[in-house]
Every structure is written in C-alpha cells, then in structure tokens.
Amino acid sequence: MRPPALYRGPDGDYLSRWKRIHLIDALLREGGFPSAAKLAKACGVSSKSIYRDIDAMRDELAAPIEYDASRKGFRYVEASFQIPATALSERDLFALMVTENAVAQYEGTPLALELRNAFDRVLGSLPKDLRAKHALAAQAVHFGGLPATPIPTRTWSELVEAILAHRKLDLEYFTPSKGRAETRRIDPYLLVVRDREWFLVGRTQNGRHFALFYVPRIRRVARTEESFEVDPSFSAQTYFEHGFNAMHGQGKPESVVLFFAPEHAHIADERAWAKKQVIRKHRDGSATVSFLSNTLFEVARQVLRYGGTVEVREPASLRRDVREQAARMAQAHR
User: Quick one: fold of 153-235?
Assistant: First the structure.
C-alpha cells in the first residue's frame, strides 16, 4: 500500500511530492553530496520542503540518509537501499506520463531539456516492470498543436536570471508596426506561456507601466549592473484579471457579450471564454456569454477563429473591429 503520510504533501498534492521524493533519491545516488539548497533548486521547492521530505524518507521508508558536515551535503549510507515500488498505482503511472508528456508545451525553450532530464532521473529510479508500464501508458496521450517557435538559449537564460536576480535588462525589441528594432530598458518581472508562445512582462523605464513583450521578437538581450526593487503591488493575477487569453490590455474593462445561435450554442458550454463569465440560455436554444475585458483585440482574434459561428453583440467597437477584419479576410480570399 502507498505510505499515506510520505507521499501526500501538506497541500495534498500526492504526485508532486512523489516525483520530488524520487528525484531526491536519484540525486543522492549520483553522489556529490547534494545540499538542501541544491536539492531544493532541482525540485523547485524551498529548502524547508526538502528537509521535511528527507525526514519523511527516513521515518517512513527507513531511508539510510545522513548529512556529512565535512562535505556539507547528504548521502546514502547504504547504496543498496531502494524506494519501495509499491508506491505507484496504475492511475499514478498515467498521471506521471501525462505530466511528462506535458513537457511538449515547453518545446523551443531550454526548459524542455531540463524538464526531460529531471523526468529521466525519476523514471530511472523505477523498477523495470514499472518503467515498462509507463512506456505503454505514454502512448495513450499526445500533446499536439502548432510547432513552438525556438527561443535562443542565451535569450532564455538572460531573461530567467534577470527575473530571479531583479536586474534590469536592455532589450533590442522588434516592433512590426514600426518595421524596426529599438532598444528598451526594462525591469523583467514574469514569463508567460500561451499555446507554446512565450511572453515577457516587463516594467518600462519611461512610462513606468507593465508591458507585454513577445519573446521571439527580442533580437538581443544585454544584462546591466543595475538592479530594481520589485513592486509589491504587482501580481500575475491582477495583471491579467481583465485580460483575455493570457494577453493584457490598457484602460477600463468593457462588457463583452457574445451570441451563439441555437445550432452553435454548444460552443458556449464546451469552452470557457473568461474565468468570470456569465452564460445565459434562451428559450429558442441560443446562448450568450458575458464577461469584462480590456483586451478587445484578442477577443476579436478568438471570435474570428470560429468563422461566423460567434456573433459579437457588445461593445459596438469590438463588433465593428470584427466586421472590418472579416471584410479584409474576404477580400484577401476573393
């Protein structure tokens, strides 16, 4: 049976803690006396979580882990120790496989390789029979979509390091409307992924507002020696609160009302258009979806994807924008 206390973390996330335990096990087997800080960085958690995990491994799995003060790291006293293979059920294997395949969402970035290496360590610690079952389960789910746009390793590394170190960056950024690249100094705050597309949230130096930069349009990144203080009022949740499809807009949010005729009303149920939306069903079988957004340009793109099965009722500016873009599409395909 699964050890209930060990594998279920304080937040109830069983699978995340299970993967962390096996990653700690794999790193200990590599030698090198990894410290709590190194294990925490590899697992993406705090050092306190690592200490709790190690204590749980000692108490519930009788893992012979000791701390070597002279090497300032942990090691297995008995190299023959193995984590019990009874911890994974069939559903757990399937969940692990889906998580592993989800790495495909990060293709095009160095993060994909790092994640695959981490999974290889976890899977390498499993017995052969469980690895064979995992390989079969991996054929059950496929993550598709358009190919990811590759991001240069140096660009990715500079962005991540600057965000973590709170260091200003100079970006040579291409703006299609201007047809040229310009250098901008920003405070990098956050990386955002949407449909395998990566964006950077950065605070500009002149306007002091938070802008969204499409990472593939960054031609060059230059680190600076100037640091910045993180605005305590900034959060991803509030930044995208009235955005749409991971895009951010300026100004006061407007009420958006989308209409679905009876033959297309199922679309209103099949996909969510906004986290805070209201769906109204009408007697004739039609439906309307209402929500607030200040990112109408992105709402227009999504409406156009449905090729006329979605009608914009409000606001008038969005309805006009969709009509004009549809006319241009019709002209291009005449």
Answer: SH3 type barrels. (2.30.30)
